[in-house]
Amino acid sequence: MGQGITDREEYKDVKKLFESITKSIIDYEKEKQLSWEKDVEENSEEKLKQALLQKDESGQVKVNFDPLLTRLLREVKYFT
Questions:
Q1: What does the alpha-carbon distance between residue 8 and residue 70 come to, in Å, rounded to a whole number?
Q2: Which residue of 7, 15, 25, 50 could cross-link 3, Cys pair, CB 3.0 to 4.6 Å?
Q3: How many Å apart are CA 47 and CA 73, to the nearest integer?
């Protein structure tokens, strides 16, 4: 009987390559997520300290909801 596929050198090479690529992808995802978390923390604290209501040039009251906060809330929704 012939060798099992897991005993072949080609299999072992492919398995090593697969594991290497998988680790690289996981490391990349972790790096991107940590970067995103840091960005969210810095920007959200700054933006949440701003007044929610403001007067514009004509004296009308408007909602001062920063587009960055909207984007962050949308991203959080995608994560959950």
A1: 54
A2: 7
A3: 12
User: Could you give the residue ranges of the DSSP H alpha helices within 1-80?
Assistant: 9-48, 67-79
The domain tally of the chain equals: 1
Q: Are 15 and 37 in contact (CB under 8 A)?
A: no
Domain around 13:
5-79
Q: What pTM did the predictor assign?
A: 0.58
DSSP state of 29: H
Beta bridge partners of 55: 61
Give the SS3 label for residue 77.
helix
Per-residue pLDDT of the chain (80 residues; tens, 9 = 90+): 467 888 889 999 999 999 999 999 999 999 999 998 888 888 777 777 888 888 888 888 888 777 887 888 888 888 77
